[in-house]
């Protein structure tokens, strides 16, 4: 279950969304919104209000004369209740 959520995304936009109690993660591209919601609720013990997903375009890579693509992934923005937070992102 923990392999489904790969890691948190820490960009400028993701940092701004923390003020609105929204958290950004990179997840397995095969997950749907319902599975993401239940996984986050079980792992972190919080109540999820909304789940927004985004599939960024694939980036091409080249190694010598061989062309290919980087692996595909899905980015998720999770909105929590105003009184809850994920301790991984909490400021010290």
TrEMBL record:
Keywords assigned: Plastid, Ribonucleoprotein, Ribosomal protein, RNA-binding, rRNA-binding
SUPFAM superfamilies: Ribosomal proteins S24e, L23 and L15e (SSF54189)
Molecular-function annotations in GO: rRNA binding; structural constituent of ribosome
Pfam families: Ribosomal_L23 (PF00276)
Source taxon at top rank: Eukaryota
Single biological process term from Gene Ontology: translation
GO CC list: ribonucleoprotein complex; ribosome
Family of this protein: Belongs to the universal ribosomal protein uL23 family.
Protein name: Large ribosomal subunit protein uL23c
């Amino acid at each position: 279950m923990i392999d489904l959520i790969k890691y948190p995304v820490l960009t400028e936009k993701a940092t701004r969304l923390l003020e609105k109690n929204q958290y950004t993660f990179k997840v397995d591209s095969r997950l749907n919104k319902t599975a993401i919601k239940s996984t986050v609720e079980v792992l972190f013990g919080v109540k999820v209000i909304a789940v927004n997903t985004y599939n960024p375009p694939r980036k091409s890579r080249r190694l010598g004369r061989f062309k290919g693509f980087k692996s595909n992934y899905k980015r998720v923005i999770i909105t929590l209740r105003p009184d809850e937070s994920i301790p991984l992102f909490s400021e010290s």
